[in-house]
């Protein structure tokens, strides 16, 4: 994700754009940070159906990058790449959702799995097995695993979404970016952010070891699903199932806690 632009030149471009609205500087910033769009699009494409063109994802992501450059405040001392990646992902997710290409039946099945997992965890005080989930959902284990794969191939839901909220314009932004003033943060916002991080961290800690490992390798080590499969010695589709199960498990837990 290197920009091929020296840090001193980037600093000058930011200064020119933010101080005087220099459009030429803005264009050069878009070009300089465009590798971020390619990176995010490539990672998201690996978990989407084959008919979703990566070139379209790049186009959607560029909208997010331009928005990030427009709204970024260098004086806040937040790394731009971190800020931009969140907005790029949000722009891609928003566009895919607007196309509404995920079948209602898949959405319904995902919600059913989330609810069943939350119910069984409350009852068993541990993560339910595939066999227990299948019984609760009145299906076979194979049907349950096939459902996970179908959800994985049809949805853009990911762990990243647990860390984001919508701003006034409807964009998906990081919770960090909702703080109005870094020198005087809103206490309620800080408390909400800290609470969410604690809840997500606790939910991840309670995942089965294999699912926890997939989450760590995917979100913290930035490995692709294929690379994780190679590390664990299983197929990419199996890793996709584990990832989907982990995310639905986490979403179910947090939803259950909010009731």
Name some characteristics of this structure.
259 residues; mainly alpha; two-stranded antiparallel sheet; elongated
Describe the 3D structure.
The chain has a two-stranded antiparallel ribbon with strand order 1-2. Helix content is 69%, strand content 2%. By secondary structure, the protein is mainly α. It has 2 domains: 94 residues, RNA polymerase sigma factor, region 2, helix turn helix motif (Rna Polymerase Sigma Factor, Chain: A, Orthogonal Bundle), CATH 1.10.1740.10; 105 residues, no CATH class. It is elongated, with a radius of gyration of 20 Å.
Major sheet: size, sense and barrel closure? 2 strands, antiparallel
Q: How many DSSP-defined strands?
A: 2
Strand coverage percent: under 5%
| Count of domain modules | 2
Q: Walk across the major sheet and give the strand order.
A: 1-2
Radius of gyration: 20 Å
User: In percent, how helical is the residue content?
Assistant: 55-70%
Model regions low in confidence, pLDDT < 50 over at least 5 residues: 165-185
Could you say which structural class the secondary elements and strand pairing correspond to?
mainly alpha
- What is the quaternary state of this protein? single chain
